[in-house]
Specification:
CATH topology: Immunoglobulin-like
Oligomer: single chain
Number of helices: 2
CATH superfamily: Carboxypeptidase-like, regulatory domain
CATH class: Mainly Beta
Largest sheet: 5 strands, antiparallel
Number of strands: 10
CATH architecture: Sandwich
Distance between the termini: 67 Å
C-alpha cells in the first residue's frame, strides 16, 4: 500500500491515500445442507434439528455451544435447508417433538417420540455413534434423506 502511494505521488498531479485504495473482498466460503425428511407420523409439534461437529455431544447436542440448533414446525419439516455451513465434518440428529416440550421424551429408557440421523444408520442398543452419521460439507449443497423412526 505504501509502495503504491509512493509510486502515485511520483506521477504529476497524482495523489493517493488509504481511502483511495480499492480493497478486494473475499467471498465467504460456506456450503449448505438440504435435508429431505420422511416418515413423520404426524404434523403435530416440531422437528428439532441438531447439526454438530463434536462427537462428544452427539446425538444430544443440548450442551454443545457450537452446534446449530433449529426448531421447525412438523407440518413444514419435509424439507429443511441449512445455509452458511462452514466446510467440515458434521452429523445431524432430529427429534420429532410432538408435544413441543423441547426435548426427547422417554419411557423406560425408550424414546416416545420420533428420531432420525444423517446417513440413516441402523439403530441397535442406544443411539448411533457420530462416525456412523457423519458426512463432509464443502462449499456446495449437500443433500441428505433422513427417515424418521418411532419405537413407541
Amino acid at each position: 500500500m505504501l509502495i503504491l502511494a509512493a509510486a502515485l505521488t511520483m506521477l504529476p498531479g497524482a495523489s493517493a491515500s488509504a481511502s483511495d485504495a480499492t480493497v478486494a473482498t473475499v467471498p465467504a466460503i460456506s456450503g449448505s445442507i438440504d435435508l429431505a425428511i420422511t416418515g413423520l407420523r404426524s404434523e403435530k409439534g416440531n422437528v428439532l434439528v441438531c447439526l454438530s461437529t463434536n462427537p462428544d455431544y452427539f446425538p444430544d447436542c443440548s450442551k454443545d455451544k457450537s452446534a446449530r440448533k433449529l426448531k421447525v414446525s412438523a407440518s413444514k419439516a419435509g424439507h429443511i435447508q441449512i445455509d452458511g455451513v462452514k466446510p467440515g465434518t458434521y452429523a445431524v440428529a432430529l427429534v420429532h417433538d410432538e408435544n413441543t416440550n423441547g426435548k426427547m421424551d422417554l419411557r423406560l429408557f425408550l424414546p416416545r417420540e420420533g428420531f432420525g440421523f444423517s446417513n440413516n444408520p441402523k439403530i441397535r442398543m442406544g443411539p448411533p455413534k457420530f462416525r456412523s452419521a457423519q458426512f463432509t460439507v464443502g462449499t456446495t449443497s449437500e443433500q441428505h434423506a433422513v427417515r424418521m423412526k418411532y419405537i413407541l
